[in-house]
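Worked Example 4.2. Consider the chain below.
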Amino acid sequence: MRSSPLRIRAATEADTAAIASTERVAAHRPWSTVDVASHLRDPARLSLVAEDGSALGHVLASAAADEGEVLSIAVHPDARRRGIGRALLLGLHARWRGVGVTTGWLEVRADNTPAQALYRSEGWCDAGRRKAYYRDGVDALVMRREVV
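Applying the procedure from the previous section yields the following C-alpha cells:
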C-alpha cells in the first residue's frame, strides 16, 4: 500500500542512489551510479522520478531540437502493475511538449511484451528493428511517437 499519493517530479542529483538502485533490480542492462549522476547533471537531459514517499521508478531521457529519446525507464519490481510506468511516460510526454519535442524514440527488447503493450497503448508505434542489439542476442524494436 502506498504511504502517500503517487507523484511524478523532475529528478535531481539527490535521486542518483535511488535511481541506480532501481536500475540494478529492474533493468536488463542497468546504468551505473556514475552514469546516472552524469545524466542528472546534464541540462540537455530530462529525468523524472515516480514516488509515493520513496522512489518507485524513473525515466531518463534526452531532448535535442525537436526529437526526444527514452534512454531508460524502470519501475521497481515491487511497484509494478500500479500504473507507474504509464504515469512516467505521460509525464515525459508533457515535458517533451514543453521543450518543443515533436517526435519521441525508444528501443525496447523484442522479448519484453509487457513494455511493448504499454508503449503501444500510449501511442508508440513500431519504426524498425535492430537485430541482435542486446548482448544476449535479443533484437531491439525501435518505436516512435508523435508528441502533440
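The first helix runs from residue 16 to 26. The radius of gyration is 15 Å. Compare this with Example 4.1 before moving on.
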